[in-house]
Amino acid sequence: MLSKRLNRSTFAGVLAGAVLAAVATAAPLKTDAAHSSVSAVFKQMNVPVESNFKRFNAVLDYDAAHPDKASARVDIDIASFDLGSAQYNQEVTKKGWFNAAQFPKASFVSSSIKPAGAGKLNVTGKLTIKGKTQDVGFPMTVKTAAGKQVFEGQLPIKRLAFNIGEGEWKDTDMVADDVVIKFRVTAGQ
After folding, report:
1. DSSP element (H, E) containing 82
2. Most buried pick, 18, 32, 81, 120, via CB within 10 A?
3. Are 105 and 58 in contact (CB under 8 A)?
4. What integer pLDDT is reported at residue 26 of this predicted model?
5. What is the domain partition of the chain in residue ranges?
6. pLDDT-based confidence at 11, cuts 50/70/90?
């Protein structure tokens, strides 16, 4: 009888340990900011320009064994957009462009992450910029490097769909409507 109790007790302990281990591994990954980036690529007067957002926060809950249970949220500090010139940086935060005073953050929240082959995922979710939200989808790659997960992808958008560039800046001859948001997020436990 004592042996059965001990076995049940041992089994309960092992089961509780397994549940705790599963919960512990389900914790979001910690972003390695030094090896992560978010940028926007667009054409100004038909010349490609790539500019970085210097501050953003990515929260990724990813387990390679269960990618379909993954989730992601990325919040971008709009005022951190760096065009390489203090004057341009100040201009794009104004109402006609990003209106950073009223809309200080842009965000992406995933609704689905599905496996799409070895090291590939298809991601869908909601992108919010300047108070406008749209459903978006894009492919993403994931690989392991130096013990961390590296997520990379590109999301094409139309800037005018988010009212980025109002008034005279709606003219796409100066700044094209097509923008590609590029990202690389390195994260680990």
Report:
1. strand 81-82
2. 81
3. no
4. 53
5. 28-188
6. very low
